[in-house]
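Cont'd.
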Amino acid sequence: EAQVTQNPRYLITVTGKKLTVTCSQNMNHEYMSWYRQDPGLGLRQIYYSMNVEVTDKGDVPEGYKVSRKEKRNFPLILESPSPNQTSLYFCASSRGQWAKPNSPLHFGNGTRLTVT
Amino acid sequence: SQQGEEDPQALSIQEGENATMNCSYKTSINNLQWYRQNSGRGLVHLILIRSNEREKHSGRLRVTLDTSKKSSSLLITASRAADTASYFCATGDNAGGTSYGKLTFGQGTILTVHP
C-alpha cells in the first residue's frame, strides 16, 4: 500500500532533549516536506526536499533540522526542543516537482508533539 | 490576509444539503488544490484545478476557479455525515525560483454535517 509513515504518533518530551521524528515513503517520490499545524495558523511548511541531498527552508525552519540521505526517508530533528514547538507535525511527499510542479501531496498521519 | 484563505471558517449543515466553501488567494498561481482532513489525521488530496481551467468535477465534488478574482470554490453536493471534516485549499506558486513547487495552505473550513 502506497503510504507515508511517520513515527511516533505521539511524543511527550522535556525542553532541551533532542528528538527525531521519522518519515518514510514507499512511492519513490522525489519531493518531501514537513509541516506543522497549529490552531488558527493552518499548516506551515518547515523544510522541504526536492531530491536526495537537496533540502531547503520553508516558512518556519527555526529550531529544526532535516536530512535527506536516501530518497525514501526524511527525518525531522529538533536539537533542543522548546515549548513553542508543541504542535501537530505532518510529513508529506509527492512526485518530482521539477517535471510536475505542485503534484498532489500524500500526507502521513501526523505526530503530536508536546514539549514541557 | 494570507494566501489561500478559506471562507467560511465553519459551516454546519444537514445531511443531503449542499456545502460550499470558498478560497481566496493573492499571488499568481500554477494550480489550486483542495484537501480534506479528518480530525487530527493527515490531509487527503481531493482535487487539483490548473490555472487555465475554470471548473472541475470529481464525484460529488465540484471546484471552480476564477483567476481574475483570485478565488476558488468547492461544492459538495448531497452531503453526508461522513463528509464532516476540515477542508483546505492550497495554492501552487507560479513565481518560480525557490518557491517553485511550493504549496501554501489556508487555515481551512470546518464542515459539520448533521445526520
